[in-house]
Structure to design on (110 residues):
C-alpha cells in the first residue's frame, strides 16, 4: 500500500508492507503459541515463532520524503531488525522512473 502526502514544501511517499506481512505470519504465530500453551511443546512452538519472525523481517516500510525547503530527499527504511535513514541532496537526483499499473476496471496508478 502506498500513501502520498503533499504540502507546499514537502512530498512524502510511504510504502507499507508490514500489514501484509502480519496477515501472512498470523497463522504461524497462532500455531506456535498453541504448541507451547496447549501441547507444552516448546521446541515445536519455538520453531513456528522463529519462522514467523523471519517472514516478518522481509516486510519493510519505506518512506521517501522530498523536502523543497532543505533541498534534500530522505529515505527511511524500517523492519523488525532494520532502522535505516539516508539523506541525499535533490540536485544529485538524475532520473526518476515512472511505472504505470492498470487493473481490470481500466484504472491507472502511477
Amino acid at each position: 500500500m502506498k500513501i502520498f502526502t503533499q504540502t507546499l514544501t514537502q512530498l512524502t511517499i510511504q510504502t507499507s508492507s508490514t500489514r501484509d506481512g502480519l496477515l501472512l505470519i498470523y497463522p504461524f504465530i497462532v500455531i506456535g503459541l498453541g504448541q507451547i500453551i496447549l501441547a507444552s511443546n516448546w521446541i515445536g512452538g519455538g520453531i513456528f515463532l522463529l519462522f514467523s519472525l523471519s517472514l516478518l523481517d522481509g516486510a519493510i516500510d519505506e518512506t521517501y520524503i522530498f523536502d523543497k525547503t532543505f533541498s534534500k530527499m530522505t529515505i527511511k527504511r524500517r523492519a523488525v531488525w532494520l532502522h535505516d535513514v539516508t539523506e541525499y541532496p535533490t540536485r544529485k537526483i538524475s532520473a526518476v522512473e515512472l511505472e504505470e499499473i492498470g487493473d481490470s476496471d481500466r484504472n491507472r496508478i502511477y
